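Encode chain A's predicted structure.
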Amino acid sequence: MAYCKICGSPNCKKHSLLLGKPVKISGFEGSSPPEVFVGRWNYPNVYTGILSPQESGNTQIMSSHELWHENKLPIPSVLQLRNQLIYGRTQGNIKKPLDSKNKFLNVLQEIAMTHKSVSTSFKLKKPISPNKEKETRVPLISNAAPVKEAKLQENPKIKKKVDYLVNDTDVKSKVAMLELESSGISTSGIIKVLSAGLLGLKKNRILVPTRWSITATDDTLSKAKLEKIRYFPTIQDFRVFTAEYIGNHYEFLLLPDSWSFEVLEISMKNFECWHDHEGIFPRKKYADNVTGAYYSNRLALTEYLSIIKKQASCIVLREIRPEYYAPLGVGILRQISREAFTNKPKIFHSLQEALDNISSRLRIPLNNFTDKSVILQTFGTQKKLFEFT
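Encoded structure for chain A:
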């Protein structure tokens, strides 16, 4: 039984002419934001593809976590933007060496290298009916379509540093990622070229599932900063940073101690808690409770500590509120974390004062977090010099 999308009645004839039949397409042209996506389901035989709408021009906001956050877009607006994208994809074994004669791969890689929307045309293996409804709950990547052919309609704009490092097949991926960051390439830009198999030694270059490349980038960039941060003097007070966006409420508590890092996340939906931490040395095991957000939070923190040239122990509290009903990806959490550290910190001279301040903004009782904190269990066993002054 079909229900009318206008009035909700079963088998409605009144509005059937207004709605019309879904239009199927066998090909289209549009400007990729730019965005590419390498899946991880059924690894190594995964789906790989390009996302593009059926419209031309500047479509960057359809793909950019930075722009969503900067413009404070609500979740329905983001999902409506995402729903305009068609995921033109193919499937294959990404552990095999890259084939330079693969035309679709070549187009995908050029799109991954650019930072501007680029006009692209697609021919599909079979017609699809893109979802034109204004859904409030759709996946971030919908409208999957098997691609027969993809062509660039214009020359993509590629920054010189990206072009140079993509063509340098003798430099390791870690070095390349750090060089890209130092030259001003955005974190999301680095993620794309890494995922597209464009960084590192020639013999090691393969496509990388996008989710893995996100974590690898955040992890690599933050670890590099930590190599210097561990030699900085510690802060001499307690600092609280906070930020919130679309139901993600963050509190960053910095303690006057040597580097250590801990993330606690609690969902108000079921009060489930996710928790990971590390000590003075960076963790070697994947943070499989908090997962990708752990590394995005750590990157934002290390960016701040690198600027002030101090080290600290940090506890991250994330309260996931009901307003966050549709996950929008780790990139959003990275931007919220960065926003927190652009705000002026609240300074306190005792741990209790800092905790009381944090508690005033949380909806969940603070002890739900603090009772599980590894850092708080050991902190304060020795007084710091500044506490005697």
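The radius of gyration is 23 Å.
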